[in-house]
Amino acid sequence: MLKGFKNFLMRGDIIVVAVGLIIALAFSTLILAFTDNVINPIIARAQGGTSAGLGWQLGQAGNKATYLNIGAFISALIYFIVFMAVVYFLIVLPYKAIQARRGMTVFGDPAPLKTCPACLAADLPEAASKCRYCGTAQPTAPATGPGSGPSGP
């Protein structure tokens, strides 16, 4: 039982995921510091005066529980966009390039789908000859490319 667990942990995929999560957490902390210390003061200053942030007080003045803080939402949105851009450009794109050198396609476009005329299931692969739900024979897709159409004038 322990040998199987050890083999599971030592798989390359698990190590890659663990390293990716550690890197993501490190970038998350960096981006959070950026939004808290750079973006939030800019948003607070945009409202002007001595405001605590961009937003409205809904209840009694000075009550933080009833302060609608739009600035915090904008900051979180900027944080999310920056974080996803970092993950995409520093993790996903290099991983795609490495896998392409190995001859594998990852994060590619989804395969084309067709709809079954009998049961209207819309998630059948275009090359399917039978519907996986109702078993109806599927019409074949017309061939495209050189020599597939009528030739000559």
TrEMBL record:
Lipid bilayer topology: Multi-pass membrane protein
Subcellular compartments: Membrane
Stored Gene3D superfamilies: Large-conductance mechanosensitive channel, MscL, domain 1
Major localisation: membrane
Lineage top rank: taxon: Bacteria
Alphabetical keyword list: Membrane, Transmembrane, Transmembrane helix
Pfam families reported in the protein's UniProt record: MscL
Residue spans crossing the bilayer: 12-34, 70-95
Coiled coil (residue ranges): none
The name this protein goes by in its record: Mechanosensitive ion channel protein MscL
Lineage per the UniProt record: Bacteria, Bacillati, Actinomycetota, Actinomycetes, Kitasatosporales
